[in-house]
Write a structure and sequence with these properties.
This protein is an alpha+beta fold. The chain folds into three domains: 7-224; 246-357, Helix Hairpins, CATH 1.10.287; 358-522, Histidine kinase-like ATPase, C-terminal domain (Heat Shock Protein 90), CATH 3.30.565. Helices cover 67% and strands 10% of the residues. The protein is built from ten helices and eight strands. A hairpin with a 6-residue loop joins strand 6 (489-494) and strand 7 (501-508). Helix 1 (7-71) packs antiparallel against helix 4, helix 3 runs antiparallel to helix 4 (145-232) and helix 7 (368-379) packs across helix 8. The longest helix is centred in the middle third of the chain and has 88 residues, at 145-232. It starts with 6 loop residues before the first helix and ends with a strand.
């Protein structure tokens, strides 16, 4: 079994990759910055050296001019020569101090060894010239222009060497700048390669971080959200599968276990609800049978009374039937009446039994108008509905795929409600039509109608507007459940109180030869 990797470890790995990327980029940046800094410092140092070298060159030039004037028999310029010599020495000292101010050994441009050697040689020449002029000055009052001329002639070669050495100083910097191109070329190529390598490494690390973040964080979160939404939408068979082997995978497994447990609880609740619903429907159906039986009891009693009277009359005439043709005719009529009334009672009881018969529930092609006619025929025998008309619109019958017993329950409840809502001379109009791939059964009455409040709560369990003891408030709720279980819809409309009501029941059309077993009857 693979070792489970915690999200904490994955985040630490991501932080480590980020740290490596930062170090690589920082190292590359600092390397380039410090190289640039050393180069700028070297250039600034050499730039500061140039004015000192130029000043030294000017002093040497003025010294040579004074030397030339003294040699031209202008003895007054000898003091100017000595002053120029002192100024040249001061300029040299300033130049040497500038050379010693900064020492950068890692850049060839900052190498001042040659300048330092030349400065020392210049210092030696000035010292030689100074010693020559000093030896001539020790003669006191015996000094003369001729003596000055001799000293200057002796110092002339050293002065020329001094001029040559001073002229060499700028050439060293020029040579260094010329050599800098080859040195810097190697350095900046190395820096470019280093920078590109660091940039590519950083890009690779960033890509790795993005991929790992997507695989370890964003994709699992997206799958968890998607799975949660599907389960919330009612798809309890969906399971979330994650291969991250971390806490998110554990969360997905917990969600799957919770969904499975919830599915088991839901199925158990659905089973219990269906059982209770079947019990309620059965109770309501038995109550309807009782209601019908009470309504048609007197209709059965009347035929039975006729049968009894006819039987008594025949009993008194049985002996004389053979000799009297009139009595024979009377006996025949009585016997025909007995048969007719007996069959009438049989028909009524068969309808009651057929309505209350319980057994295997099968959805089968059923003639909708014929089913409505059977229920209406039973209701016509109920005494309290006498005078109230049930008008069934003529037209082609419509086959629907339903359970006949349950749809009879629907039609009975709707018709009883409609008949209760109309007066003694009112009527209920029933029509069945085919609309597209569905059948629409419409029951419209001209009774008391319904308000908006009643329409809003009409199909809720235990909602009723009848007087206490005259209804349970479950009839229309059961009707709504039966129609919904058949894949249909029921809609109630009314223009207001006293303006009648209309119920529209939509059911799926039947395909001839198809029957669906759906369990046991309620």
């Amino acid at each position: 079994m693979a070792r489970r990797r915690a999200i904490r470890e994955k985040l630490l790995l991501g932080a480590l990759l980020v740290g490596v990327m930062v170090v690589v980029l920082s190292a590359s940046s600092f390397l380039g910055i410090y190289s640039y800094r050393r180069l700028v410092r070297a250039l600034s140092c050499r730039a500061a050296e140039l004015p000192r070298a130029s000043e030294l060159g000017e002093c040497v030039g003025l010294l040579r001019v004074a030397h030339a004037r003294v040699l031209a028999a202008d003895a007054t310029e000898f003091d100017a020569f000595l002053s120029g010599l002192r100024a040249t020495e001061a300029a040299l000292e300033a130049y040497r101090q500038e050379l010693a101010a900064f020492e950068l050994d890692d850049i060839r441009l900052a190498d001042r060894s040659r300048e330092a050697v030349t400065a020392q040689r210049i210092s030696d020449c000035l010292a030689t010239i100074d010693s020559i002029t000093a030896s001539g000055a020790d003669g006191g009052e015996e000094e003369s222009p001729v003596r000055h001329r001799g000293m200057l002639l002796a110092a002339a070669p050293h002065l020329e060497a001094l001029a040559a050495l001073t002229a060499e100083l700028p050439s060293f910097l020029q040579q260094r700048l010329h050599d800098l191109s080859s040195e810097v070329r190697t350095r900046y190529r190395t820096l470019i390669i280093t920078t590109w390598t660091a940039a590519m490494a950083a890009a690779g690390l960033l890509t790795a971080i993005a991929v790992l973040t997507y695989r370890w964080v964003f994709r699992p979160l997206r799958m968890l959200g998607h799975g949660s939404r599907r389960v919330a939408a009612g798809d309890f068979d969906y399971r979330i599968r994650l291969d991250t082997d971390d806490e998110m995978a554990e969360l997905a497994e917990a969600l799957n276990d919770m969904t499975e447990r919830f599915q088991e609880i839901r199925d158990d609740l659905d089973r219990q609800v269906q059982e209770r619903t079947r019990e309620v429907i059965r109770g309501e159906q038995l109550a309807s049978v009782g209601f019908l039986a009470a309504g048609v009891a007197h209709e059965i009693n009347n035929p039975l009374a006729s049968i009894a009277m006819c039987a008594e009359s025949l009993e008194g005439r049985i002996d004389a039937l053979a000799g009297d043709a009139a009595d024979t005719e009377v006996a025949r009529r009585y016997l025909a009446l007995i048969q007719s009334e007996a069959f009438r009672c049989k028909g009524i009881t068969e309808k009651l039994l057929d309505f209350s018969r319980l057994g295997e529930v099968r959805r089968q092609p059923t003639a909708l108008v014929g089913l409505v006619s059977d229920v209406a025929e039973m209701l016509r025998h109920v005494g309290r509905f006498s005078g109230r008309r049930i008008e069934i619109e003529e037209g082609p019958d419509v086959l629907v795929m339903v359970n006949p017993q349950e749809i009879k329950q629907v039609v009975l409840n709707l018709l009883v409600n409609a008949l209760d809502s109309i007066d003694e001379t009112g009527s209920v109009r029933v029509s069945a039509r085919r609309t597209g791939g569905e059948a629409v059964l419409t029951l419209a009455d001209d009774g008391c109608g319904m308000s908006e409040e009643v329409l809003e709560h009409l199909f809720e369990p235990f909602f009723t507007r009848r007087k206490s003891g005259q209804g349970t408030g479950l009839g229309l709720s059961i009707v709504h459940r039966i129609v919904t279980d058949h894949g249909g819809r029921i809609q109630a409309t009314s223009e207001g109180t006293g303006r009648g009501s209309t119920f529209r029941v939509t059911l799926p059309l039947a395909q001839v030869g198809v029957a669906e077993p759906t369990g046991l009857a309620a």
